[in-house]
Design brief:
Elements lengths: L1 E6 L5 E6 L9 E9 L2 H9 L11 E6 L13 E4 L9 H4 L23 E3 L1 H6 L1 E3 L6 H4 L2 H13 L8 E4 L3 H12 L5 E5 L2 H10 L3 E4 L5 H8 L5 E6 L4 H10 E9 L13 H7 L2 E4 L5 H13 L8 E6 L3 H9 L5 E5 L1
Helix pairs in contact: 1-12, 5-6, 5-11
Length: about 350
């Protein structure tokens, strides 16, 4: 049996025993070395679950445990595992809209990243594992999946060197989005949030200006930094329709707004279609990650273009996974990583 951590009663984490996987000829087992705690994990724990099929965690770094004859991977090699895989053959994949793939979650890691062993189906083993540079620490490599999501968001709205960029949200994904924007040449990069300990880290490492929205008027700051135009790009890294509406008010004519954070189904905003027509701004969403973005993220981390170290404010042993979840749930710091 494989031990792993899953959501239990609402707000609780439980230790579950998962059955050993049935192995196909090209399947791989990886032994995790690190797994980041994601807001999705926190949401699942808050909601609660009695499902014994899946473990928490998908920001996974691990070592190859077996090497099928059909594989080019070597036993002991470290990899980042993409949590799901586009099919490559559907309508959306043919148009390079890979995270809209109609079979996106058909091939996944099992039971999940917060387990003693992870089964990687052959297709994912062939196309969804990315090698980790030898000198990149496990906890930093665990940022590749969330940073890959941030890089996708940056590219989805076409941020270019010199673009003024506002990131609303001072959580890990907000700061990773700011770091990615900077790496792509955005200037100035402004992060807005409400938690002083997070904004301090943002100011020291990831942004040109922070705005504590409990102390300053965000609109005034943005107009000041953009000669009154509004930001070229606004990334909403907060799960709020109200904040998305604010982002639309703060983007310049012809600029771009990215609804980056996931929100619950049914949340809506009032949209002034007159402004949409005459301001000609672009409003889009951004979801998920694919192997090319993981590769780009690992390059940014390995090259130092994105400094992942300040973002990781706590590491926990595998046995203390419930404490890692609680740390993230309570917004005690920024990023929590479980080390195996």
């Amino acid at each position: 049996m494989i031990k792993g951590f899953a959501a239990g009663e609402p707000g609780k984490v439980r230790l579950v025993e998962f059955p050993e996987p049935t192995m196909g000829p090209g399947d791989i087992i990886i032994t995790p070395t690190a797994c980041g705690i994601c807001a999705t994990d926190v949401k699942q724990v808050r909601k609660g679950s009695s499902d014994n099929r899946y473990a928490l965690g998908h920001e996974v770094v691990g070592r190859i445990n077996n090497a099928p004859s059909s594989s080019t991977w070597k036993i002991g090699q470290r990899v980042v595992a993409v949590p799901y895989l586009p099919c490559g053959a559907c309508y959306y994949c043919h148009r390079n809209q890979l995270t809209l793939c109609t079979s996106l979650f058909k091939v996944t890691l099992h039971p999940g990243g917060l387990a003693e062993k992870i089964h990687v189906p052959q297709m994912l083993a062939e196309r969804g594992l990315v090698p980790v540079p030898n000198d990149l620490p496990n906890e930093i490599a665990a940022l590749a999946e969330p940073l890959g999501c941030a890089v996708k968001g940056i590219e989805d709205i076409g941020i270019m060197p010199g673009d003024s960029t506002l990131v609303i949200g001072d959580g890990p994904m907000g700061l990773l989005s700011a770091a990615a924007a900077r790496a792509y040449g955005a200037y100035p990069v402004i992060v807005a949030g409400m938690l002083s300990h997070r904004l301090t880290i943002a100011q020291e490492h990831y942004t040109d200006r922070v705005v504590d929205v409990t102390q300053e008027d965000l609109s005034t700051v943005i107009r000041e930094y953009t000669d009154g135009r509004g930001a070229d790009a606004v990334i909403v890294a907060v799960s709020s329709g109200e904040v998305l509406a604010t982002a639309i008010d703060l983007v310049r004519p012809g600029g771009s707004v990215n609804a980056f954070a996931g929100v619950s189904k049914g949340i809506s905003i009032n949209l002034d279609v007159h402004d949409l027509h005459y301001k000609q701004y672009v409003l889009t969403g951004s979801f998920g990650v694919t192997p090319p973005y993981i590769r780009k993220a690992l390059h940014l981390l390995h090259s130092g273009q994105v400094n992942g170290r300040p973002l990781i404010t706590a590491c926990f042993p595998f046995e203390a996974t419930s404490e890692a979840i609680a740390y993230s749930m309570n917004q005690t710091g920024l990023k929590a990583v479980v080390l195996f």
